[in-house]
Amino acid sequence: MTLTELTAAIQEYGDFKIEELNPGYKVSIYLGRTECPVVIISDLEGEDFLKYFKEEMRSRKLQRVKHYKAFKYEQARADRQNGRDYYGSCSR
Q1: For the chain, which has fewer Cβ within 10 Å, the N-terminal or C-terminal residue?
Q2: Whole-angstrom distance, CA of residue 89 vs CA of residue 45
């Protein structure tokens, strides 16, 4: 199994960074934190690495994870830009 075939099989699980080691492979999984990825490394080759990768994904329950990119929107700042003084709400 070539690196291209392995990459195609692993990309079914999501967008990961795959590196070829000598021997083996390294897969970095970025779950919203680029400074601290989940890493799966093994010195297995081809089909054996793919089996190992799938088992690691199942054991860590990562095959159920959905990947989204979100942006934080600050309401107070937007209200100040619109000329309103709103810093939260309180009930009486």
Answers
A1: C
A2: 58
Query: Which amino acid makes up residue 27?
Result: V
Evaluate if residue 44 carries a pLDDT over 60: yes
Residue-wise pLDDT for 2-23, tens only, equals 888 888 888 777 668 888 888 8
How far is residue 77's CA from residue 86's CA, in Å, rounded to a whole number? Answer: 9
Task: Name the most confidently modeled range: 6-20, 55-69, 76-90.
Answer: 6-20
Mark out the alpha helices in the chain (DSSP H runs): 3-10, 46-59, 75-81
Q: Helix (H, G, I), strand (E, B), or coil: what is residue 81?
A: helix
Question: Which residue(s) pair with 27 in the sheet?
Answer: 18, 40
pLDDT at 85 over 80: no
Q: Which long-range contacts (CB under 8 A, 24 or more apart) does 71-79 make?
A: none
62 within 8 A of 46, measured Cβ to Cβ: no
Find, among 58, 59, 29, the residue nearest to 41 by Cα: 29
